[in-house]
Amino acid sequence: MDFDDTPEEAAFRAEARAFLAAHHPRKDRARAAARYGDVDATELARARAWQAAKADAGFAGITWPREWGGRGGSPIQQIIWNQEEAEFDVPYNVFLIGLGMCIPTLMAYADRPVLDRFVAKALRGEEIWCQLFSEPAAGSDVAGLRTRAERDGADWVVNGQKVWTSGAHYCDFGLLLARTDPTVPKHAGLTAFWIDMKAPGVEVRPIHQMSGASHFNEVFFTDLRVPDRQRLGAPGQGWKVALTTLMNERLAVGEPRRPDIHDLIALARAVTLDGSPAIEDKAVRARIAGWWADSAGLTYTRFRTMTALSRGQTPGPENSIAKVVNAAKQQAIAAFGMELLGQAGAVLDPALAPMAALFQEGLLSAPAQRIAGGTDEILRNIIAERVLGLPGDIRVDKDIPFNRAGARG
Amino acid sequence: MDFDDTPEEAAFRAEARAFLAAHHPRKDRARAAARYGDVDATELARARAWQAAKADAGFAGITWPREWGGRGGSPIQQIIWNQEEAEFDVPYNVFLIGLGMCIPTLMAYADRPVLDRFVAKALRGEEIWCQLFSEPAAGSDVAGLRTRAERDGADWVVNGQKVWTSGAHYCDFGLLLARTDPTVPKHAGLTAFWIDMKAPGVEVRPIHQMSGASHFNEVFFTDLRVPDRQRLGAPGQGWKVALTTLMNERLAVGEPRRPDIHDLIALARAVTLDGSPAIEDKAVRARIAGWWADSAGLTYTRFRTMTALSRGQTPGPENSIAKVVNAAKQQAIAAFGMELLGQAGAVLDPALAPMAALFQEGLLSAPAQRIAGGTDEILRNIIAERVLGLPGDIRVDKDIPFNRAGARG
Amino acid sequence: MNFDFSDDSRLLRDQARRFLADRSPPALARAALTAPPPGLDALWREMAGLGWLGAGLPEADGGAGLGAEAVCVLAEALGHALTPLPYLSGICLAAEAIARFASPAQRAAWLPRIAAGEARAAFALAEGVGDPAPGAIATELRVGRLTGEKWPVADGMAAEVVVVAARAGGEIALALLDPAGPGVTRAPVEMLDPGLPHARLVLDAAPAERLPGARDVSDIAALLDRAAVPAAFAALGGAEAALEAAVAYAKERQAFGRPIGSFQAIKHKLADVYVAVELARSNAWYACWALDQDGAALRLAAATAKVSADAAFFLAAKENIQTHGGIGFTWDADPHLYYRRAQMLSAALGGPRYWRERTVAALETMN
Amino acid sequence: MNFDFSDDSRLLRDQARRFLADRSPPALARAALTAPPPGLDALWREMAGLGWLGAGLPEADGGAGLGAEAVCVLAEALGHALTPLPYLSGICLAAEAIARFASPAQRAAWLPRIAAGEARAAFALAEGVGDPAPGAIATELRVGRLTGEKWPVADGMAAEVVVVAARAGGEIALALLDPAGPGVTRAPVEMLDPGLPHARLVLDAAPAERLPGARDVSDIAALLDRAAVPAAFAALGGAEAALEAAVAYAKERQAFGRPIGSFQAIKHKLADVYVAVELARSNAWYACWALDQDGAALRLAAATAKVSADAAFFLAAKENIQTHGGIGFTWDADPHLYYRRAQMLSAALGGPRYWRERTVAALETMN
User: Fold this and answer.
1) Where are the domains of chain D?
2) How far apart are alpha carbons B82 and B253 in whole angstroms?
3) Do B1 and C272 touch (CB under 8 A)?
């Protein structure tokens, strides 16, 4: 075992760190984050500028081919970059879904002219992409979607509604999954397209979350015309295309949510219980030890992933583990922190609540973490079935034509 | 609200308590129980003598008709008796299954001469009954049983194996559920019988539990001949008969298992941590508070049941709640107690381990509590479906002839 | 043995549920997140007119003298409806403090007006972070003037009178304060559930009038014990409502061709919530009996009920969101209302640590 | 960055797994519950012959000098196989204590024989109920004689030499004791896992020889830190085996016409076990690296690994029984073997409280 970088890795890390330090301050845990983290025009401009700077310096698309502006580097370089970037206070990453999920799907299914047109611009942050899969009636059952695309000459005409579309309000293009044949079982009747989000027939409405933030949107399609050349994969092969996209979702690195174990330790040092710092209370110590062990376990699991990547192996289901553990842990740590505050536990005022109400805000944002991007329940299914090899759930709708598959909510 | 007995109830309680005090000492929590609680010949004789004495005094079968030796009393009197008896160190109740489940099923399905022959003797403890439903291959899926009963003239010939039969080694009669028609779906091919456990063709083998106890048995049938007059209900109606039996199981009062919250408090007082009694440790106090709240909640839930009974209402699913909560609580309390013992946590020697190794023994007996008489999983299904009204699990085997229903383990 | 509410109490509970289903639907609680909805003051006066505000007060004080059961069933119904009004803080704490510790003149000045919904009262114990304890009170009462800081104070912006806990010599005292009077600066405090507005009071020699009956910190602890019982019923009501919502949604919402409530992941989750709610219910009922008796059983019973109900409400609220999936964490759906309220109730009378500690302390004196 | 074992270590792990699958199947562990099975001593000597017992010892002491990775992969394999032999107590604690704290003469007298499987060594720290702490040691070493009581002592009945922790003036010392010598009364102690026999030693001025290198309680704590790493690997191995058993049974066992592993109640339970096992694995690996480095990172890494692995093993063991249903709690089935071993490992070097406390204490010095 060896935790040191190879000389090449160390050189890359130094280069990355120097570049980052030249552009941004280091993260300061003690500084309160913007409350909702919503992306306004100023923030969007900052994000675009940063992405362009990264691309100019060869730190965007590290594993992508040079011809599209990538670095042609290794997965381990990408990981090193991610580690280093996470230490700095860089703009919110509005390109994560586009570069992490949409463009890789294009690379797998679109032809050369399309890639020439889109990849480099996306990489430089000039165009932003979103993913249009989820629907109100489908939920975890993504393939149960109802948005229709009907053939009309050289076009498809799309009608329906998507939901939970991150960043749709500032996106330029989107990856759409629609039902093109309702007479076959649900997975067989889907087709994928790329679409222009500014085209007539696309309407974006923000979703107001319980936390107060509005990261997500509803997207409505009314007679949106999509030329057939914007189709990805054959008609009816949309589910296969979607799986490519979702597979890439697993690799997207999500930052651990706060409050985390370090925040809890900081709070337990700051708060006094019965005349002593809370961190001296045995009940508090017992909880810290448990959450620390989980946090450390996730950290070192990422090291295992990095090692696998550096050997050219495909990483396993670590991200499912991380999401299941982190979402529940965030909620539990937030709730426990509020217990330490006693009668001030429900004070949301950042000027009054310790640590600028980080724990209270975390409590409000935690429920979304247990749901968005795969619910706790779906992730446990994935671990049980894909990792442990347990049999799948009984699927009553699998072989039934979509338009005859019983009651739908 | 009023927790006092009515004058009639108070009189009955006084009578019961006087009778109990005349026969047995009060329970002493500090005294170690016999390790495995297995029933040997001496214990069996004590149990029979006590049951006869109860019957003579009108405290056996309190709600049963007088003609069969019952008291013709009210459900609330039965509860009061149970409460009072629980305070005394009476012999292990080997009659619980017979009187609580088997005889009530006979009452529902057998004809008069059978009842005249059996009920009074069972009530006096002269004959003991067991229930023969579970099978190795069936488990929670009781109706998946395979023991065959085939018609042969005026008899049925039984071959197969039962398992988890409490007390089969000292029982005289049993309530048997067998498959009489494998060509119909599984619930439709069952028939119930009462059988003589001493008949040729019945072999009983004790099951050695992980705790060291042997409360359960396997029962093997080899060409056991059962006269058709021992049938209960029509052929093919056995599942309905079994439901009557299982419904009565819910009403059988199970004693909370130890170690319980009071044992934990006693242990936390006895053990020293860092120079102070463990009960002064905040981590210990936090756990005690939580388990106390659950324990108290169960106690008062029983009060609600008693109130419903006293009004002639049928009690709800309280017993499912109690079992789910108690089994997990026993295991967690036992494990937590062992944490308090530190390096002596795994010492099973009752002469060395505090409280005569009650916590260690509880840890070994707890797993059975989460399984026997309905697993945690089955009980949650029952609560979800019968109480909350959620839809049933998808049943792939429901309408398929038993002998064609796919792979069986 | 009759472990159930009286017929009168059950009638009152049913009436309250029906009234609130009409007048205080979840939409009212959601509207209150943004700004006090019109009609809220009128609803409070209507509640007064129904005798709810004075339910626990003696008739001599303008109350209805209905006793503990009535107060508890009302708290449960208001908790179920998430009614954004200060029943617990104004009635179960502030009015109760005046009823127990005030002079006859003070009682006469305030209780009839409070019971009639004409005056709102608040109770100021907390001084920021911390649980109730003598050491946590720094505000001083000296020669009839209060100096210190109190926050968060439920309904502190609207209240016409505030009962303030303060240090007076070696004792912990309670005093009546006019929050609009001299020496008082008050400002709203943003809370997790903005539907229950709170304030921060900065007191600089603000004139106040001591309640002669409260002489010790144990008087305040006893007052909190009493208020913990209706608070537990409020949490129980909220937990019931959250469970009902989750079950209803699980029956109706389809995924993979079947109702999501047919999946064991959902069934077993909701079964666990049901178990927690039923245990909380039983503990709350017992505490109601103990409140009515007002004897030695109350301390443990109240703390147990509080621990049990707060835990059940948080569990029911968070799993209701989870059962709802994506829609569950949107602002416009109801689930977050329960989640917010659960935290408010949990912190209101001292946090979970306070009530767990009180449970064990009471157990120690018994076992 | 290479967060994986060396090729040599992985080879050793695979060899150990294969060897133990053959020589130490679960049947051996079950037989050991009743009485030491024939061949157990021979197996120990075979392990010595394979170089396992001296894997962590320098070659000068008769060891193989393979280092921390080798010790950890062996502990994991032995834990996976539930091998009823005292590798942790005899090798990772007792021999390690001699290797670190003994005089050259003492090392020469014992280590080659221990590594060769010719002599068994035990480590006597516990004095009944309690976690390791200076105040928990009452046994005294005075002018070369030990007086006190030590229990439970793993392998104390079979050991030829026992390393005893005792009070010597103001210090905590370690001393070598001949348990068959004068002044020693030893008796077996019944344990949850009788496959790992323990003893109680009553010492009445029993002659003993101090290990000159151990002068302080911190030396013992450091020794426990080092032993905690292979102990965590043993628990990890047990947890893996219990999970494998549960998954295999869930795939095969049918109920309601389908494998029970197709029910979410089982799937999600086993997914949770898998998550716990993977976190424990990552923590154990990191601790192995820290053990190898023997630097400042060890204290926190060892404690974290111990907390994580013990929790994972208990979870995996109890849910393996639950997954097996009725058969799972029978004596003749394997699941209870893991359940017993989990508790043994959890208590062996100080209970979970000790390691949680050590985790937080280490965190405090960092954060």
Assistant:
1) 7-115, 121-210, 217-365
2) 8
3) no
Q: Which of the other chains make 3 or more beta carbon contacts under 8 angstroms with chain D?
A: A, B, C
Contact call for residues D149 and D203 (beta carbons, < 8 A): yes
Out of A129-143, B298-312, D189-203, pick the least confident. B298-312
Q: What are the residues facing B177 on neighbouring strands?
A: B192
Q: Which of A9, A150, A249, A280 is catalytic?
A: A249
8 A C-beta contact, residue C106 and residue C216: no
Give the closest of A288, A294, A303 to D279, CB-based: A294
Q: Is A249 one of the annotated active-site residues of the chain? A: yes
Measure the CA–CA gap between C295 and B3, rounded to whole angstroms. 14
For B138-227, where are the alpha helices, taking DSSP H only? none
Contact D87, D33 (CB under 8 A): no
Q: Which of residues 123-182 of A touch C (CB under 8 A)?
A: 134, 136-141, 144, 163-164
Give the integer Cα–Cα distance in Å for B169 and C266. 42
Q: Is C360 in the A-facing interface, judged by CB distances under 8 Å?
A: no
pLDDT tens, residue by residue, C207-222: 999 999 998 899 999 9
D309-351 tens-digit pLDDT = 999 999 999 999 999 999 999 999 999 999 999 999 999 999 9
Residues of B labelled catalytic: 249
High-pLDDT (> 70) share of chain C, %: 99
Identify whether the C-beta of residue C330 lies closer than 8 Å to the C-beta of residue A209.
yes
Which distant-in-sequence residues (6+ apart) come within 8 Å of C50 by Cβ? C19
Question: What was the ipTM of the complex prediction?
Answer: 0.95
Report how far apart, in Å, the C-alpha atoms of B8 and of each of B21, B303, B381, D177 are: 20, 18, 40, 71
D264 at interface of C, judged by CB pairs closer than 8 A? yes
d(CA D193, CA D84): 9
Give the C-alpha separation, A345 to C142, whole Å.
30
Q: Does domain C121-210 have CATH number 3.40.50.300?
A: no
Q: In this complex, do D247 and A389 lie within 8 Å of one another by their Cβ atoms?
A: yes
Residue spans of beta strands (DSSP E) within B61-163: 129-132, 148-152, 155-163
DSSP code, position B384? I
| Tens-digit pLDDT profile for residues B229-244 | 999 999 999 999 999 8
Tell me the one-letter amino acid at B165.
T
What's the first-to-final CA gap in chain B, in angstroms? Answer: 53
- The CA-atom distances, in angstroms, between B151 and each of B157, B173, B226 are 6, 21, 9
> How do beta strands D121-124 and C198-210 pair?
unpaired
Confidence band (pLDDT; 50, 70, 90) for A251? Answer: low
Which of C4, C247, C272 is the closest to B1 by Cβ? C4
Nearest to B373 by CA among B209, B250, B205, B258: B250
| CATH fold for the domain made of D217-365 | Butyryl-CoA Dehydrogenase, subunit A; domain 3 (1.20.140)
Is D279 in the A-facing interface, judged by CB distances under 8 Å?
Answer: yes
Per residue in B365-395, pLDDT (tens digit) is 999 999 988 899 999 999 999 999 999 988 8
Q: Which two tokens stand for residue D106?
A: 């003492």
Q: Residue C12 in contact with residue B12, Cβ under 8 Å?
A: no
| Nearest-angstrom CA–CA distance, A144 and B348 | 56
Residues 42-81 of D with CB under 8 A from B: none
User: Tokens at residue B129, please?
Assistant: 């009954």
Residues of D in Cβ contact (< 8 Å) with A290: 307, 311, 356
Residue range B181-195: average pLDDT?
95
Q: Which CATH topology does D7-115 take?
A: Butyryl-Coa Dehydrogenase, subunit A; domain 1 (1.10.540)
Q: Which of residues 286-325 of A touch D (CB under 8 A)?
A: 286, 288-290, 292-294, 296-301, 303-304, 306-307, 310, 318, 321, 324-325
B97 contacts chain C (CB < 8 A): no
